[in-house]
């Protein structure tokens, strides 16, 4: 099965279009003000308004209030919510929107147990752990920690780039991969050449797997 791709941390319409033109299945919009890749609701609505059909839009939140979620969902067409904080399954479900749960790969993480806790999630996004940083560390983690039984539920993130995505897909065989900093020229500004190179790496891995 073809590995799906999300390009996250989109802040400009031209970057969203570059991702889609290169073959990405989804874009990610960060609704977390401390992030250098954060967008306002107004910015997000403009980006989404210009998208062509059949592109999934993922909204990334970190421990949001219900009011924050309600406001964003009322003004921006989001297909999926990515909860990237300490949310419980009940909190995620209360959004009323399909969701994925981000997991920061601390040394003591039990992925099989978390998969049971978040059985209602569409998938688990695995990101590198760095104390005090919800995500976007630019670092990889030990991919061998991922149980093979969960591969179809896994969105692999954390330090992916055009240089290592092919190897990552071969080793993990995830349902999808997620990249942000690995295809940037500056925080929040995508490098269109790197996006194309990343997508070529995904395509090579898929051909070789087939």
UniProtKB/TrEMBL annotation:
GO molecular function, one term: phosphoribosylanthranilate isomerase activity
Family: Belongs to the TrpF family.
Protein name: N-(5'-phosphoribosyl)anthranilate isomerase
Species in which this protein is naturally found: Sedimenticola selenatireducens
Keywords: Amino-acid biosynthesis, Aromatic amino acid biosynthesis, Isomerase, Tryptophan biosynthesis
Any single GO BP term: L-tryptophan biosynthetic process
Domain N-(5'phosphoribosyl) anthranilate isomerase (PRAI) stretches: 5-199
Protein's UniProt keywords contain Protease: no
Gene: trpF
């Amino acid at each position: 099965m073809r590995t799906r791709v999300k390009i996250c941390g989109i802040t400009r319409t031209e970057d969203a279009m570059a991702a889609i033109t290169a073959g990405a299945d989804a874009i990610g919009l960060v609704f977390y003000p401390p992030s250098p890749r954060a967008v306002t609701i107004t910015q997000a609505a403009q980006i989404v308004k210009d998208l062509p059909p059949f592109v999934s839009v993922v909204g990334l939140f970190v421990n949001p209030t219900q009011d924050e979620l309600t406001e964003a969902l009322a003004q921006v067409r989001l297909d999926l919510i990515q909860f990237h904080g300490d949310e419980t399954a009940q909190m995620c479900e209360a959004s009323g929107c399909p969701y994925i749960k981000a997991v920061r790969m601390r040394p003591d993480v039990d992925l099989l147990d978390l998969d049971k806790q978040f059985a209602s999630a569409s998938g688990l996004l695995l990101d590198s752990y760095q104390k005090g940083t919800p995500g976007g560390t630019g670092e990889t983690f030990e991919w061998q920690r991922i149980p093979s039984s969960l591969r179809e539920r896994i969105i692999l993130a954390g330090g992916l780039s055009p240089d290592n995505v092919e190897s990552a897909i071969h080793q993990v065989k995830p349902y999808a991969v997620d990249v942000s900093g690995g295809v940037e020229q500056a925080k929040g500004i995508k490098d269109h050449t790197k996006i194309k190179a990343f997508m070529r790496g995904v395509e090579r891995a898929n051909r070789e797997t087939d």
